[in-house]
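Hi team,

As requested, here is the filled-out complex form for the alpha-D-glucopyranose run. I kept the field names the same as last time so the parser does not choke. Let me know if anything looks off before we queue the next batch.

— J.
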Amino acid sequence: MPLAAFLVLCCCCCSSSAVLESDYVKYKDPSQTVEDRIDDLLARMTLAEKIGQMTQIERKVATPDVMREFSIGSVLSGGGSVPATRASPQAWVDMVNDIQKGSLSTRLGIPMIYGIDAVHGHNNVYNATIFPHNVGLGVTRDPVLLKKIGEATALEVRATGIPYVFAPCIAVCRDPRWGRCYESYSEDHRIVQMMTEIIPGLQGDIPSNSPKGVPFVGGKGKVAACAKHFVGDGGTTKGINENNTVIDERGLLTVHMPAYLDAIQKGVATVMVSYSSWNGEKMHANRGLVTGFLKKKLGFKGFVISDWEGIDRITSPPHLNYQYSVHAGVSAGIDMVMVPFNYQEFITDLTAQVQNKTVRMSRINDAVRRILRVKFEAGLFESPLADNSLADKVGCREHRELAREAVRKSLVLLKNGKSMEKPLIPLPRRARKILVAGSHADNLGYQCGGWTIEWQGLTGNDLTSGTTILSAIKSTVHPSTQVVYNENPDHGFVSSNNFDYAIVVVGETPYAETAGDSLNLTITEPGPATIESICGAARCVVVVISGRPVVIEPYISKIDALVAAWLPGSEGQGVADLLFGDYGFTGRLARTWFRTVDQLPMNVGDIHYDPLFPVGFGLTTRTVNEADAPADS
Ligand code: GLC
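And here is what came back:
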């Protein structure tokens, strides 16, 4: 071979091997360990790219250009923020993918992570299965059920292209006057700890050899979860939302903290900080608890996310001194900031503070390391774009049946027949004529409550698909039974019709967060009047649809049977299953049912504990088959 040809050949070989080496990018190599991939990527990132990763913006401002220009790391849907009314799973997938393509077109192609509040099923999405809110799920005391609910929810969320949910809320609600009490499983932290089994349902079972505190997300049918709101959100004075939790350290650690240990042990990927304060110190600025305790003592290695405008609310009024808020929040240990709109101000302020060294570069690197760890664990680098393969999971029959089972296990029977009388429940299916009444009998929006389709929830039956309690009753009774529906009949109507019995469904209308704070906890009008007019003229079952215990003592002597149904969600059939004896009541209160609001706060274990119904109370019934079976069977 001529020398010249040989030299050319060598150059080609060298250049091709040089090309091969320069083409190789470790962080893109799935055969590398996550930590090695993070190290490689972090070393390549500019300050702007790092701070972009710490920025979460709302979908309304998340154009592909914004994603690219600011290297945005995350996008969310706020409550009710959807691509279109009644958007299909495909429309969701297309929206998420469009935003993702903006991120993938950046210099390093780091995928963004999209988050949403799927807090009782995929509740923003039309036709999704709406599970009972946590206030009812805590009654089940059934971790296996909760895990299944997590599995079902993860599939429906992934069906819309989303890999991250701001759930579960593991608040320990200590005062039902709190507008978010229905997001809490119980006033008893042990029940809340039990319910953290929803996390492996959402994320997958963490491998037994996983290092402590490492986030885990196991595959395309699983999502990253978020334990919230750290810490003490359910302990504020008078239940005032976002207010101050006054409790000593022992109380904080024994009541409000235990479920975080369970969540971390189960590999929870993220933790959201609470708006509330602990003994006057804003949690969003609490370095001792966020960094000192959660990250260092508990060894949490996922990322910490702020709440919506959470750093703005460090000051009062909010956004009073945003530079201070940015410094306080990021220095406390917040890794990702749910801005969600003024992202340019956030990025500018944080960049300036790193450049003038009032925020250490090591803090930024720690935050980005944690964010990248979750993204690698969630498989976003290998599969950043979603497909439509899970679309048929949204609202599927299997999930609705699971939700129906959850409804059955969440109901609590508080009274069944007046003294010395035959129990009213199970109700006879075959009757001459029955009355169904009440503001909540035929209202899917009311039975789903807040955080359903819209942030504050809705009224009516066309918000999504589901089964109202009225339609469930109609489909359960014998065909010969005449069902009369009258939302709010007067006494004369009831007494003149001589009904075999009446089912009265009343309660609270939907609310979320501060809008739900209440000092009187009364049943929404005309509920009390409906109870009075009916239960004085016919044997009545009152079913209460509420996010918490409500004032019921003034009416209880007139009521024959009383059911706490909480916020059952889309599958109202679960209520009829119990009323008519297809299944027996098993639920036991996970919250104290007070006599009067003057007693509040009042929790199990208190010295002065004089409830109408205590935690653990719940009457049971047999199924109709059992009831009909001969005594010795
Ligand atoms: C809300 C809630 C939080 C939710 C977040 C995003 O204000 O406090 O629970 O995850 O904003 O919607």
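Two things worth flagging: The chain has two domains: 44-393, 411-628. The chain is about 35% helix and 10% strand.

Thanks,
J.
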